[in-house]
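Co-fold these.
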Amino acid sequence: MTARSTGEAEGGMAARAGRLLAMARDRGVATTLNHVAAAIAVRRRPRVVRSWPRFLQFEVTSRCNMACAQCSRSTLGVPARQGHMSLTLFESLLGQFHRYQSVTLHGLGEPLLNPELPAMVKAVRARSAHVRVGFNTNGLRLTPDLARSLAEAGLDEIGVSLDAASSDTHRAVRGGGFEEIVARVRAVCASREPRPAMALALVVMEPNIGELVQFVELGKSLGVDRVSLCDLSMRWRAQGADPMAVRSLDAARQNSLEAERRAREAGLPFWYTRLDRALWPDAFIPCFYLWDYPYITWEGRLTPCCALPYAEHSLGDLRATPFRRLWNGPAYRAMRAALVSGRIPPPCANCHHASPEGPP
Ligand SMILES: C[S@@+](CC[C@H](N)C(=O)[O-])C[C@H]1O[C@@H](n2cnc3c(N)ncnc32)[C@H](O)[C@@H]1O
Ligand code: SF4
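Predicted complex below.
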């Protein structure tokens, strides 16, 4: 969740203090102190970070059974080496971290292809009752039985990426399977009890801006717990040259505001992570990934974030060097310093989080 996501918990000093006290009671004092230190690090953006990251993202597989137009697998290319993270590696990697609050079990690939996913959820849950565990899926392999076994393992939430409210648009963006995925989400929503929570996720793109209101209505009719929208995180081509980038700016703004209004009316939680400055001139969420949200590839490499997941973006190999040494090692320190000073590191040049001006 980000500072400009609709739906963020709000409140004054007293409310914040109350939340910290509740956190200390539930998760312990050390995790709570780390939470405060990490929040300060995200705000101050030092070169050396004393806190542990609160958010972890594990690429449980780099394989995928879809080829979505907006995904880095299409814009950057499919990685040369692909595979599933093994449970053994996952457990040894997880053991290198402390005081985290959230574990995301998807990266650049389809998590339900990894048969060890339920065991990974169980491994996280065995370490803490309070860590939030979830992942996004394209939904093609989702079944009520699998959702039940993931819930029994301790999963909190499944986000199903649909990117459309119609079959034609879904085919244009994600290549097809809309009816099947919708039927699977409906079946899971009808059978779960009460976990896992279910969300529908949509990346706002030119082909789907006419369907944002319908998307909320679809979520409501399927019985999901939340609908979440997000702008494209990177701009890979010049403005106007990317067929997925939003060009009909007024329509996108109006439709997303109407979608939000409908969700409120329907009592359906709605988040929208606004990143694209062409659409939202005031939007800017400074990069927090380098300070609080590392990404770990299926092979065990540490990379800056989910948009830079390949070997060439590696900040170190966690199989060879423990995280506590890499977190403030030369590669991380140099990247943080460059970003803060405005000398945007080349891999970050296309990212909306890199500078208030946004990508060129
Ligand atoms: C990379 S996917 C991996 C998980 C799974 N395969 C899926 O599609 O949900 C994770 C999430 O990132 C979203 N995503 C893909 N490309 C994106 C982009 N360029 N900007 C923002 N989000 C993106 C997907 O729609 C999905 O919700
Ligand atoms: S967005 Fe997800 S389903 Fe689509 S290609 Fe990327 S990893 Fe695969």
